[in-house]
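We modelled the chain as a single entity of 233 amino acids. Its sequence is:
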Amino acid sequence: MTRRVLVTGASRGLGVALADSFAKRGALVFAGARDARPSLDRVVAAHPRLVVPVTLDVASAESVSRALSAVAAEVPAIDILIHNAAIRSPSVSQPIESIDFGDVARTFDVNSIGPLRVTQAFLPLLRLGNAPVLVHVSSEAGSIGRCWRDREFDYCMSKAAMNMATALLGNYLRGKVRVLSLHPGWLRTDMGGANAALDPEATADSIVELILRESESPSGPAFLDHEGRTLPW
């Protein structure tokens, strides 16, 4: 059975690594990317029949609608939807006295509201999938139970909001779609930086295997790390 997968934020980093990892397993991957994508172009060249680039800006309802039309023209359903698109604002490290509320609003729009836009649009296709899974690429930064920071308000709060979406959607889709928040770890990407602990390609392989295992698990929301360990909400 060929899995049909949509990954947002697939222009670079973890997103493009997930697209590559799924394609290596024979999945048909729709790789959503907002802008320039040389890394994705290399993956498309390596898997020309399995990785399909789709222009997708999760902060734009019009872009999401066009992406839905493009995917629906190719397949009648998708089996896995991965919300990976995310940003960290230029002012993310500022203390409360000097945070930029324009950056806060933009971060929430992309990291929290964006996944809802995409889910709303693609849910009819996902409902028709085989053992469908909805995945939010979250972060331990969104865990209230493990909160240790005293800043990064926009990023942490946006990921906590994403986790709440996981819980709500998991309740709403219980018995029909498996819904997960996944913390990928500190990755050597543009967002994570060169000193991060984990390789994105190896981590993507672990995440893909985890998603495939979870597709067979009982339905309901869960917050897991990339090795499948449960994290506190």
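As a brief sanity check on the tokenised model: The domain at 4-225 is CATH 3.40.50.720 (Rossmann fold). The longest strand covers residues 28-33.
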